[in-house]
Amino acid sequence: MADLVKSLKCEVKDVNACRKAFSVSADAETVKKEAARALKDIAGMVSLPGFRVGKAPVGIVKSRYEKEIREEVERRMVNAAFDLINEHKDWEVLSVAFAEEPKLELDADFTFVMNVDVAPEIKLPDYKAIKLDAPEVKVDEKTLAERMDFYRNMYSSYAEADDAAKPGDMLKVTYKSDFALPEDASNSLKRLVEAEDSYLWLNDPEMIPGSTKALTGAEKGRHYQFTAEYPADFRESALAGKKVTYDLDVLSIQRRKPLTDEELCEKLQVKSIEDFEKNLREAMTAEEKNRQRGELAEKLYAELDKQVPEFELPPSMLQNETAKELRKLANEQIKSAEDAEKFKAAMEENNKTAEAAAAKSLRRSLILRAVAKAEKISITAEEVNAQIDSMSRYYGYKGKEFRSMLEKNGAIDDLALDMVNAKTLEFLTGMATGGADKK
């Protein structure tokens, strides 16, 4: 490889502040020498009918495996070009891609151009001088009481109610509607259209739109009729955007019976209501601290962003980030075939929106990357592995299965970058608020 690297000629042109056009060329003699080496390597491995492994005549191997030889020579040329690129220590290479797909012939000169995107020059301000006030975290007593009531209700059971239905009640009902079911209707669609001895909760999210308003005040043993208006993005596409009239009989009304302090402690397996309140207060304090840290981190970055002069963005990274933002936009907007057509019709505007979001996101990432480099902030492979394990448990996947998914999507590098950025923001926020200087 060292001989090949020395035999290549290269020329570098500045395309813009973040891109170099790296032109690499090899004369025909160099290509022939490398092809001969590749042919020898391949001939030593292949097995052809009538010959032992590695004993087939070179001429036959060359004829049979010309495509593979060409691909191997091309691969070696590209690897040598990477070595040449890495010799430029003044470049901080972010990405490398062919300007055009190279075409190699085994008996001719070979030239190809690689676009090398390099890190922009970012003039960082005195970010250590940024200061933020971090107010003391206190748990609101009313919120604490509401959270305790939430647990009382969550662990409570339903009991028959003799009075009119109230929001939050559970009604046992039988209903049918005027919606005509398609032949291939799913069970979930059938349950929404007609059901016997079923249960309907008068709370959000509603199973049937408008049922809470229509049935608040309903009485046991009475018949009711109401019209449900399904939203255009309803999960069951057959009902999306439809108005459906229901005839419904209320068979019974059941209401949660809040637990006493003693019953709640028994359910939660705590010694006393005071212990539960203490634990809950600590948990809510931690939640509030996390929320506050997030807000402070965003405030800090906003101030940092104001102080960093504009800089050019690497073209390949911007292109990739724009594609990601466009996919995200499509996932948010497209819920039906009609939505897809609208999205295509507005593609020019969607591309502008995606590129603007991508530029903002990439600028943020590069600024934090520059701070991380200055402060020598990094993450280890162990930290990445721990994060992947944590994410796999959260999403309900096996660790190896989840890692394989990330690798196929090329998402592990993105995950590592997000982790470094988060660590950098945590470091900056700690300094800005007088916290511990941890890297």
Description:
With 439 residues, the chain is an alpha+beta fold. It is built from 15 helices and nine strands. Strands 5, 6, 7, 8 and 9 form a five-stranded antiparallel β-sheet that branches. Strand 1 and strand 2 form a beta hairpin. Helix 2 (28-43) crosses helix 4, helix 9 packs across helix 15 and helix 13 (381-395) crosses helix 14. The protein is extended.
Please tag this protein with its features.
16% strand, 439 residues, 5-stranded antiparallel sheet, alpha+beta, 15 helices, extended, 4-stranded antiparallel sheet, single chain, 9 strands
Gyration radius (Cα, Å) is 33 Å
- Measured by DSSP, the beta-strand proportion falls in 15-25%
What is the molecular shape? extended
- Which series of helices and strands comes N to C? HEEHHHEEHEEHEHEEHHHHHHHH
Mind describing the biggest β-sheet?
A: 5 strands, antiparallel
Query: How far apart, in Å, are the first and last alpha carbons?
Result: 39 Å
Overall mean pLDDT:
91
Helix content: 40-55%
Helices, by number, come to: 15
How many DSSP E strands?
9
- Uncertain runs are none
Brief rundown of the structure:
This protein is an alpha+beta fold. It has helices at residues 2-7, 28-43, 58-64, 66-86, 141-154, 187-193, 211-215, 261-268, 273-307, 315-333, 337-345, 347-375, 381-395, 399-408, 412-432; strands at 9-16, 19-26, 93-98, 110-118, 157-160, 170-177, 195-201, 223-229, 243-257.
Strands, helices and their partners?
Elements (H helix, E strand, L loop, with lengths): L1 H6 L1 E8 L2 E8 L1 H16 L14 H7 L1 H21 L6 E6 L11 E9 L22 H14 L2 E4 L9 E8 L9 H7 L1 E7 L9 H5 L7 E7 L13 E15 L3 H8 L4 H35 L7 H19 L3 H9 L1 H29 L5 H15 L3 H10 L3 H21 L7
Antiparallel strand pairs: 1-2, 2-4, 3-4, 5-9, 6-7, 6-9, 8-9
Helix pairs in contact: 2-4, 9-15, 10-12, 12-15, 13-14
